[in-house]
Specification:
heterodimer; A: alpha+beta; 10 strands; disordered C terminus; B: 184 residues; mainly alpha; two-stranded antiparallel sheet; 46% helix
Chain lengths: 366, 184
Amino acid sequence: MNLEHFLKSGAPGWMDVKGLDADIVLSTRIRLARNLDGYRFPLSFTENEAHQIDEMVNEALNSIKAEGHKFSHFTIKEMPALQRQVLVEKHLISPLLAKKEKSASVHISNDEAISIMVNEEDHLRIQCLAPGLQLAETYANAYKLDSKLEVHLPYAFNESFGYLTSCPTNVGTGLRASVMMHLPALTMSKQIKVVTQMLARLGMVVRGIYGEGSENLGNIYQISNQVTLGKSEEEILKDLQEVALQIIKNERGAREALLKNSRIILEDRFNRSLGTLKYARIMTSEEAASCLSNVRLGVDVGIIKDVPLNVLNECMILIQPGFVQQYAGTTLQASERDMYRAKLLREKLNLNNQKLLEKGEERYDV
Amino acid sequence: MVCEHCKERQATVTVTQVVNGQKSEKHYCEVCAQNFHPFNLDFHKEEQIPIHQLVSNLFGLPVWNSGTQEKAQSTTQKSAKCPTCGFTFRKFLNEGKLGCPQCYETFGKQLPLVLTKIQAGTTHSGKAPGKPNHHNEWIKKQIESTREQLQLAIHEERFEDAAGLRDEIREMERRLERGGVDTP
């Protein structure tokens, strides 16, 4: 597959499928950090070592090709900056990998559900994504791939410390499991603070999806395990699963309470946001994220009916600066981006509306 | 100076925190410092404590700037140098990251002191390369702890709970016979 395939669409193929509790949990991500024995970590290795590691991983992935794994390989240095940014915004590569100057690359599966970063902070970062809450299933995918790769790669492993990683915060299982949650009602009712404090005590971390410092943007929170050593993979996943289910329960409760007490205010807010998305001419990423969150909640609680969730998923990815510029076909200043962002959203949301209208008319004729 | 927490023992560890640009120092004794768990802090706060500062704090060491690093190293006692990457333990404390897999062996004695602060333990209990049966150990441990719970339930005459626990144990034993977890 060429790079265009991964750049053109906003929402990746795997996001179309509706996962478990998909109204609240947008996606599940599993990441395994692995390193090769006998090679220094990317922090201190030479270009020669970086190159060798890149080759070894490439060969290992070729060896397991026959087992149904098809990956496209892209070298970071050869990629224009804007394309790298689009891959970051799609969460297929990390901002750190995008900035690499030594040999670094990414292998992406055709459906974008698996990406393997080479020479990021660790030699390998195996990442598996799935829609909705699917921790066990997504881990099973990562586990299988990891077990196939370990036959061909000399993983750095130690009986007592487990998988050895560059940073001691990843050592042991090397597992970081994350769930991306849309929590507008907990945010509106100011309960989110209590939730995040509770999570910190349980050794979980909360982050925003649109990069650092974006904790509240679009009311989307990414919840991950902090601990990787002293607990097995199963225990880590079980703890996160329990926490996620508890938060889902709380969010649903908060939504019901909000609807019961202030339905008209909510209806007003949802429809104003939809109007803004459909007709505004200038839109910052903050405003876009907040409007999309409102419309999404409106759809979830059945007040807004004519906007499909997959269009909202796609818009959430498309409003980011890299995608807006990709859409415009050129690099843009922040103010120009705001205009193109508004245009892009108008197109996505009005276009879809037209299609629905046509379908409705057909049905009306019958 | 007396420990700010127990107000009894001598303070030997200094913990420096920078929150919203405000630097504050706390002085603890070794016993209280052991209980100081970094994850009790609000991690979602924008001003996070960087890992290198965290580990330095835990050892009561100042964070060296790269300029003063060499000088600092020469004045400290001779410390082990990793044969593969040349990292010293102080360099690890400054960077917050290790240089190569060999470092885990080189600093094998000091590392658990850091790991107890940031992890749930110092010993790995999960997947291992080339050992598909490693999961069995985990299942065995689960069976043991469930058996203890079962005994407790019987002792407290919670028979419904006991029946549930008994079924759980049976299911785990079945999984063991099949050679590990079902999914992967």
